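Sorry to interrupt, but I need a hand with the structure work. I would like you to pick a protein and set down its sequence and fold. Please put the record directly below this note.
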Amino acid sequence: MKLAKALALSTAVMMTTTACSSGSGTSTATSAPTTTVSESAKEEVKEEKEEVKDESKEEKAEEPVSTEFVLKHTYDLVNMYDDVILDEIPQRIVTLSTYPVLSLYDMGLAENFVGVPTTTTLTYPDDLLDNVEVLPGVMQANFDIELIVAMEPDLVICPATAMSVHGETLIAAGIPVYAIGMSDMNGEMNVYEYMKHQTDVLTDAFALTSEAKQAAENINNRFTELEVRLDEVRPQFEGQTYLGLTISSVTDYYLQTPTSTLGTMLSMIGLQDIFAEDESVESSQAHGMSGLVNLEDIVGLETDLLVYVVSGVPTIEEAQVNVQAAKDNNPPVWNAIPAASRGDEISLTSAYVVTAGVQIIDSMHALIDLLLEQQ
């Protein structure tokens, strides 16, 4: 309507201008009023056109934002599995992996979960547990795939290692399934890099509102803040060596490799695995890098720090109790390990055996704190 009015006024301007041109021989007194009307009409046309533009902008701004949900896979899985595409963000998520839980929780999606796996790797927030059922892990004997189907999820997040069995079963039941990795299957990223990449993929998919986008940015800022802190503390630890041991029981110990979760964290902080430092030790202990450790083989081994990771415990206090129990089982041998006899050692929870997505940020901050206290 306003556009039509603007066109009419524009026509009036043209007619007025024509009248002025045809009356060029008339006196000044006659032409002056005509000129005044022409300028007024032009101004009104301009105002009407501006209003039309503003209305057009408002109409575009009011167009609904697409809520289509597209969850892509990490780069190492993208050619193995299809993207998950839904009409909207899933409202009934069952995750069989701990890896995505905290990222999505931090994005305000606690109420979208209906099932999470049991774990000692992390402690779930209380308000998350109010809404979900804690399920047996996919590798446990009492895992029940029929229970998952009965929960009527609109998305199941499944470990990539379980896709060939449980994932395919759920897909056959008509349930959207997303495969999530524990580490880079191509071996190009370390654990930290892969967790950061995986988190980016998840937050990109779920950031469909302004609040969710801000939450995703906050998560990214936490990674950045950690990396700044690593740059600050690394000079204090560069050149120091460590020996990493996983304590499975009072008699069974495994070497942590430099590329493990713990090994990656320590190398980013600046410490170096003793087997990378000493070629003779690396050669003689080649089998021990991936198997059981005979404590007598590391008697007399000089290293700046002993780092124990205790399987299946969620707190540092419990880890320390288990480490002491192992030492009490064979005091002469432990006392003959220099770092142990000096007390240059720290005990860690199962969160350092495997991590769980964005949890790696807090785990690394806590590890830095422990190392600084140890100095």
Remarks:
- The domain at 69-222 is CATH 3.40.50.1980 (Rossmann fold).
- The chain has three domains: 2-61, 69-222, 238-374.
- The mean pLDDT is 84.
